[in-house]
Amino acid sequence: MTSRPPLRGILSLALLLVATACTGESADQGDADQTGTADAGPAVPPAVTGEVLPAALLGTAPPPSGATVEYAETDPEARGYLAVPEGEGPFPAVILIHEWNGLVDRVRQVADALAGEGYVALAADLFQGRTGSSPEENMALVQEARAEPARMIANLNDAVAYLRGRPDVTGRVGAMGWCFGGGVALSFGLDGVNHEATAVFYGQLVDDPARLASLPHEVYGTFGQLDSGPSPEQVEAFAAALEQAGVPNDLHIYDEVGHGFWLYVDQDPEVRSEPALDAWERLKAYLQRTLG
Questions:
Q1: pTM to 2 decimals?
Q2: pLDDT tens, residue by residue, 65-108
Q3: What is the number of structural domains in the chain?
């Protein structure tokens, strides 16, 4: 594990994926009103973010401007969201995997932010067009999806094929997710069609070096010191297993924050802004390294 200068007490460590309830998702349950098309909506102009957080994490982003797409031949009820950058491309691509409440506007707005950074961004839908509005509804959706892990992997395999089939995509594709989606991103890195990047934000982990040895690329992970799912001890075990397996990684635990801190900075901006910005800068650097 690497170490970093203190940033509100940042610790360098591991990766993630969550089986526990995510903090903050139910604050944003809305669905976009875009109708399905084969292409994205208006292209997203280049972002001028510098060292600032994207508006998507602060709850100040405009409504999503992309389009709903049917990308999953094996899961025809899935309704993804596509955002594309301005320009001719081709561009690398990123698949976003939602939290336990489904594909809501906060995730779509992050897709828009990534399009502003020069990525064709496809927010996948593992709940077949449904979202939850309470912990009970969210967990029911998670349990239904987890009962069919092969369907989830096939859905994401289709997402890769959809992106690689677009003329505006270079062919290099990464996947990222939060909480439930972080765990799925890790599983997809292990069991899905080959792709070039896996970024996980807090979630359930794998600590078997033999299992992790099948990861074909560097892994990114962001965690909170105050989280219990995964706990810092679980993150340490995951980091050690990655090192033993010889898998390159950029894994960090941030002090003073817990589960869900990155996607919902607006819930506690005084505490969350600084670590979230560092995680965002690390994510951009990681995607640049792995996807180009």
A1: 0.88
A2: 999 999 999 999 999 999 999 998 899 999 999 999 999 999 99
A3: 1
Q: Give dist(CA 144, CA 170) in Å, integer.
A: 34
Query: How far apart are the C-alpha atoms of 258 and 22, rounded to whole Å?
Result: 10
- The residue assigned the tokens 């765990």 is 183
For residue 2, is it within any domain?
no
CATH number at residue 119: 3.40.50.1820
Query: Is pLDDT of 197 > 90?
Result: yes
Q: Which residues pair with 2 in a beta bridge?
A: none
Residue 47, in any domain of the structure: yes
pLDDT at position 24: 52
Where in the sequence is the domain holding 28, given as residue range(s)? 11-291
Backbone angles phi, psi at 28, to 5 degrees: -140, 90
Model pLDDT, residue 204: 86
